[in-house]
Write a structure and sequence with these properties.
The chain is an alpha/beta fold. The chain has a single domain, classed as P-loop containing nucleotide triphosphate hydrolases (Rossmann fold), CATH 3.40.50. Helix content is 38%, strand content 29%. The strands form three sheets. Strands 6-9-10-3-11-12 form a six-stranded mixed β-sheet, with helices on both faces. Helix 3 crosses helix 4, helix 3 packs parallel to helix 5 and helix 5 packs parallel to helix 6. It is globular.
């Protein structure tokens, strides 16, 4: 469903991704792990079409569509979704209005605020989010947990085919981590979407079962496998990847 082939990406003239190959399938949870600076977030932003990231070689294919030259809006309409590591605050724009505009754009509809309210409240009930949440300004004054829950609410409302979660677990306490993970599991079960989770740590994978693990180091995928990789990283850290970098 989402395939990355020999992807090379430059940022400000420096090569960050150095030939990434990755395959993530519909209905599965694919996990990308790696230490800070390994290129994980660069891959996420490149997949979503951030103009800062310059593709010099390789392909990104989603649902048989080549993504390389498509803008972020067209990628979103194809069904790609990115949950940000650091969600931005937008004063004066409510969560409800923001999502209604996005929903109408993606679905090519013209729902009124009243009609859309029924949709967003259904999703908030599913995710155990209070109704008043929709009237608050987007991420303004939100706690770290509320920002991440808002990202999952956006995912539930927009119903993409494939979701990229860029360190959604970052900064979450155990309680909020469990809430976010349970919400993600409900959405995945209901929609049958593919998910790419980008993370440093094992803890979110205690709540969301992964199907495949990729490990990135120095801009390359250096190892792949099952949950045994997560256990090894948890016990040994990332230093053992240096040998694999040389081999790759």
């Amino acid at each position: 469903m989402l395939e990355v082939k020999d992807l090379h990406v430059n940022v400000d003239g420096n090569e960050i991704l150095k030939g990434v190959n990755l395959l993530a399938k519909k209905g599965e949870v694919t996990v990308l792990m790696g230490r800070n600076g390994s290129g994980k977030s660069t891959l996420a932003n490149t997949l979503m079409g951030h103009p800062k990231f310059d593709i010099t070689q390789g392909e990104m294919i989603f649902d048989n569509e080549l993504l390389n030259e498509l803008g972020p809006d067209k990628r979103a309409k194809l069904g790609l979704f990115l949950s940000f590591q650091y969600p931005q605050e937008i004063s004066g724009v409510s969560v409800g209005n923001f999502l209604r505009v996005a929903y109408n754009s993606l679905k090519n509809t013209k729902l009124t605020p009243l009609n859309f309210r029924k949709i967003i409240e259904e999703k908030m009930r599913m995710l155990k989010i209070e109704k008043s949440f929709a009237d608050r300004y987007l991420n303004e004054g939100f706690s770290g947990g509320e920002k991440k829950r808002n990202e999952i609410l956006q995912l539930a409302v927009l119903e993409p085919k494939f979701a990229i979660l860029d360190e959604t677990d970052s900064g979450l306490d155990v309680s909020n981590l469990k809430i976010v993970a349970e919400g993600m599991n409900k959405i995945k079960e209901k929609l049958g979407i593919g998910v790419l989770i980008i993370t440093h740590y094992k803890r979110i994978l205690d709540y969301i079962k992964p199907d495949k693990i990729y490990v990135m180091s120095n801009g390359k995928i250096v190892e792949q496998g099952g949950v045994e990789l997560v256990e090894k990283l948890e016990k040994e850290g990332y230093d053992w990847l240096e040998e694999l970098e040389v081999e790759s």
